Amino acid sequence: MIIQRPRRNRRTPAIRELVRETTLTPNDLIAPLFVRDGKGERTPILSMPGHARLSIDELVKEAKELWSLGIHCVSLFPAIEDAHKTSDAREAWNPENLNHRAVRALKEALPDMLVMGDIALDPYSSDGHDGLVDPKTGEILNDATLEALAKQALASAVAGADILGPSDMMDGRIGHLRRALDGAGHGNVSLMSYTAKYASAFYGPFREALDSAPKKGDKKTYQMDPANGREALREAALDEAEGADILMVKPGLAYLDVVYRLRQASALPIAVYNVSGEYAMVKAAAERGWVDGEKVMMESLVAFKRAGADVILTYFAKEAARLL
Ligand code: PBG
Q1: Which CATH architecture has domain 6-323?
Q2: Domain residue ranges in the chain
Q3: What is the pTM of this model?
Q4: Angle between helices 256-265 and 293-307 (to 10 degrees)
Q5: Quick check: CB of 203 below 6 Å from ligand 1?
Q6: CA pair distance 176, 222, nearest whole angstrom
Q7: 208 in ligand 1 pocket by Cβ < 6 Å?
């Protein structure tokens, strides 16, 4: 005789809802958005159906719609014109650059919307690297990059960014940025560290969207080796000690074990970045009728929460919020 029958808890929709362990709400989501220059422009990103590079006026419209759907944080990624890209990436801290104009416009239109700014040099670098490159050796220079990132962070804070997301993976950046921000009176600006950011092939569509792929080499001397999980704990301990407010794992689906490990190891909120390639794969398969795109999307998002993420950055944000 079978006494234990787990199926009793799955018998009807009502009982399944009653015993459900994780739920997803639009408040958990951060919408990454791509920005371009111009007016009234929405340039589709071919490998990311449903996404476009938005001029600032269109970005504001989009953000208003997201707000009304319950999404209260957006993360901006500016597509910088080649003419503004240099090897020292100085456009990154130009107060009038595309990113800072976009942040100001958003905060003016939607003061309560959390605006997150990316901290890394790649959109502004003629080398397409997150850090400064030694022209002789090709080495990515850690400590010189920290100085540049601090200038970028201060300019973003002045523009009104609420949260900064250092995605560059330089050593010591969280502490360096925290001190720079606090020293300049920006103690309220949060740091969401890209703590465990892997050297991943899943970033392909994003690099196409920003035309930001490295001109030479790859990012393996600063982004993490996909074979390593324990190393994420070391990065997490450093970020926590250096003053990070939120720890992030990126990409998402192939790294749920890392999300789980950070959840166990830290009391800080954990974020996960469901990246461009993950979005593109679902969209491509759904377009062919090979999977049900909506169901795969919701299953993936709930899996992030089940693994321990509190916050999910996802290109599905608007679509998911509409269904929720
Ligand atoms: C770079 C950056 C990348 C992403 C966010 N910030 C790409 C990279 O490291 O090359 C990827 C996001 C995505 O693929 O959705 N600082």
Answers
A1: Alpha-Beta Barrel (3.20)
A2: 6-323
A3: 0.96
A4: 30
A5: yes
A6: 17
A7: no
pLDDT digits (tens, 9 = 90+) for 187-213: 999 999 999 999 999 999 999 888 889
What positions carry a catalytic annotation?
197, 250
Q: For residue 77, what are the CA distances in angstroms to 31, 52, 53, 115, 250?
A: 11, 11, 9, 11, 16
CB-CB contact of 320 with 314 (8 Å): yes
Beta strand 52-54 with 42-44: parallel, antiparallel or unpaired? antiparallel
Q: What angle do CA 296, 248, 243 make, to 5 degrees?
A: 160
Return the amino acid letter for 65.
E
Strand partners, 116: 75, 163
Q: From CA 8, how far away is CA 51, in angstroms rounded?
A: 42
Give the tens place of pLDDT for each residue, 35-90: 999 999 999 999 999 999 999 999 999 999 999 999 999 999 999 999 999 999 99
CA 27 distance to own-chain centroid = 16
Residue 214 Cβ contacting ligand 1 at under 6 Å: no
